[in-house]
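cron nightly-structures :: item 1 of 1
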Amino acid sequence: MVNFTQLALLQQGIETWETWRSQHPQATVDLSGADLRGVNLQGINLKGANLKGANLAGANLRAATLNIANLSHAILVDAILSGAEMIDTVLVAADLTQANLENANLIGADLRTTTLQAAILTGANLIGTELHRANLRAADLTAANLCRTDLSEAILLHADLGHANLSGANLHQAELSETHLYRTNFHKANLRATHLNGAYLYGANLSEAILTTADLRWAILRRANLNATDCRRATLRGANLREARLQYTDLRGANLRGVQFSHTDLTGAIVDETTVVDAPLPIAASSFPSQKLD
């Protein structure tokens, strides 16, 4: 339950709050359920605070310290959190629709089932975060670091992850249809049964990734790196693989009907009688040199 004395101090302004916190460094901060809509909290120290269920819609939390704070079920619609420190912060089931988290530090944060629809996360640090079943529809994650992040069953429809780092990330059964993935790094990522139909993966790095049973129909994979990728039973029907690299890629059981293979490097690729193709593939040795990405 909210501590009304602390809430009153906070409402007096950041200077009053910071003075009180410096005098009471061990105090447990409880602002759960507080109404803080539109409040200016720029640069405030709320480390370890209990803000569960608080209403922070439209609040200014730019450069705030929220490490290990509890913001589960909080309302942060249109909130400004750019540059905020949110290491190990709990944001389970929070609503961050259209929130600005540009360059925020969310290492190890728990964002399971969180709504981040149309949120701005450009340059954000999301290493090791939990985003299981999170809603990131139309979110901007350009150049974000999502290394080793759990995005299993997350919704990323129409999101922009151009130049983002998802190496080692778990995207099992995630929804990335029509997503912008220009030069995105998926090295050693788990994309098993992931929906990528119509995704734009020009120049993406999918080397050593797991794409078993993934749906890549009509995906743009031009100049993408799929070397040593596990594509068993993946559906690539109608995909654009022009100038892509598929050296030693496992294509057993994959559906390759209608795939555009112009100048594709298939050296050492693995196929068998279960691979569905329109015509035999030039597997033994590619006559096309590896292409340098733009």
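cron nightly-structures :: done
The radius of gyration is 23 Å.
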